[in-house]
UniProtKB/TrEMBL annotation:
It is found in: Cytoplasm. Keywords: Cytoplasm, Kinase, Phosphotransferase system, Sugar transport, Transferase, Transport. The keyword Kinase applies. It comes from the Bacteria. Coiled coil: none annotated. Residues 1-124 form the PTS EIIA type-4 domain. This is PTS sugar transporter subunit IIA. Its main location: cytoplasm. Pfam families: EIIA-man (PF03610). InterPro entries: Bacterial_PTS_sugar_comp, PTS_EIIA_man-typ, PTS_EIIA_man-typ_sf, PTS_IIA_man. SUPFAM superfamilies: PTS system fructose IIA component-like.
């Protein structure tokens, strides 16, 4: 099953997880990490790292964030490059999370990424989708074997 780390501004992450658990009961491999004003990126990184390791059983982890480019998204993006089967989604909201809940157990992280973005577009996107629009910078000398 895919782990979920919901990370948003103020108390929105905790609020989303509480709403899901109120309706569906306790959710295994789900954690909420709130990003409060004044919290350092270093502390957020430590909190997200703990949540990542608590939710990952080997199938992958989905970071679900509220705003693309904001601190939770940026920190999760940096972490995702170090861990296999780790995706970062932005623009999430309760109805979308509710729709996607059943797919945690049946989809790979890549399939989940494509499915959630297709259901929530244009407001919902992923790190992978953003990188396809803006490919990474490559030095010319890296393209040629000398």
């Amino acid at each position: 099953m895919l782990g979920w780390v919901i990370t948003c501004h103020d108390d929105k992450a905790e609020e989303l997880l509480e709403r899901l658990e109120t309706k569906y009961g306790p959710l295994a491999q789900c954690r909420a990490v709130n990003f409060w004003r004044g919290l350092s990126a270093n502390m957020l990184s430590r909190m997200l790292c703990d949540a990542l390791h608590e939710t990952d059983t080997g199938d992958g982890v989905i970071f679900l964030t509220d705003t693309s480019g904001a601190a939770p998204y940026r920190v999760a993006s940096l972490m995702s490059h170090k861990h296999p089967r780790c995706e970062v989604i932005s623009g999430i909201h309760f109805p979308l999370l509710e729709q996607m809940l059943p797919f945690r157990a049946t989809m790979s992280s890549e399939a989940f990424r494509h499915h959630i973005v297709s259901r929530g577009a244009p407001e919902v996107t992923s790190l992978w989708h953003q990188q396809q629009k803006n490919p990474p910078f490559v030095l010319l000398h890296d393209l040629y074997d000398c």
